[in-house]
Design brief:
5-stranded antiparallel sheet; homotrimer; alpha+beta; Jelly Rolls; 3-stranded antiparallel sheet
């Protein structure tokens, strides 16, 4: 298991980690299989989507901020219930194909750490097998 | 593949199954890899999130009940379309890291069966490899 | 890795690909493990849910069209930000149990390609291991 450290800079943002995941896959020596990119946090998710136009991830951040308001009649007293809920909706991990010793993504796909309660020091745990 | 039986007690609730998943991982004898926790149901999901403060999962249940209303102009006649949709949003499984022969979760993370149409007898299927 | 080609027919629809995934699992020769069904696209997801009553997937399509409107104050200029966001919410892949050399699903479960910006030629990448 390899640990990728990511320092986020805003409360909510998607950070492209594709090249670092790719390096971890290549370093693993696994030729065929799958790669688990796992967030060990409860207010930070992982997703795969378009990496070319940053407007796509900006739209996702805006949409989620509207759909899951930061303030509301939440029971959890830390003021970040929205971040927990967004993490459940987007998901705490992605599993990606590995073939020919390399990460296999679609042409427009990138891997993103989804920060919903930053800025913070975050980790992603990468398992290839 | 190991089967965990869970009897839920409400229509909607998140049930912490972390220790049972951990036991399945340890019993598998797998040292390094990943663990798939899979719901074979269509109105019951699986997620990973905070296990310390029960207000977090209570907020998630409340949020989802508001976001996906139980009654509406649904075509499916069984009265549980909301539960099917919630299951698609949260997801039917999680994949978790296994290292050193043990389940590896973040400090605040727990694994939850998400009941959206209970109370029912449910199963989770755990595969370690 | 096996590639399943799917031609979708509407802008938004869920297409049952269960039997094709099952064939890929059987052809792999893997007896025990898991199967990754991966969408290499950014406006097309994968889910598992009820395959018996088509009203269930119809309700999901209708719900998502309401929850993530096609038009809005989106920054991405291609007019399909809704499709990118829906893909993040539903997820780009599912991981399914394999046991006894066969795909193991719950009684009512089917595997669906979720088209959110069709009609298009799509692929699913299936990895069994």
């Amino acid at each position: 298991m390899r640990v990728l450290a990511v320092d986020t800079r805003r409360r909510e943002e998607l950070v492209d980690v594709t090249e670092r995941v790719r390096e971890a896959v290549r370093a693993s020596g696994v030729a065929e299989g799958a790669c688990l990119v796992y967030s060990p946090h409860t207010t930070c998710a992982v997703t795969v989507n378009e990496g070319w136009d940053p407007a796509v991830t900006a739209d996702a951040v805006t949409y989620l901020a509207d759909a899951v308001p930061r303030t509301g009649s939440y029971a959890h007293a830390e003021g970040n219930s929205d971040a927990h809920i967004k993490t459940m909706l987007v998901g705490s991990s992605v599993t990606l194909p590995v073939s020919g010793g390399d990460l296999r993504l679609g042409r427009w796909q990138a891997v993103f750490l989804c920060e919903f309660d930053g800025p913070r020091h975050r980790e992603l745990w990468v398992t290839v097998g």
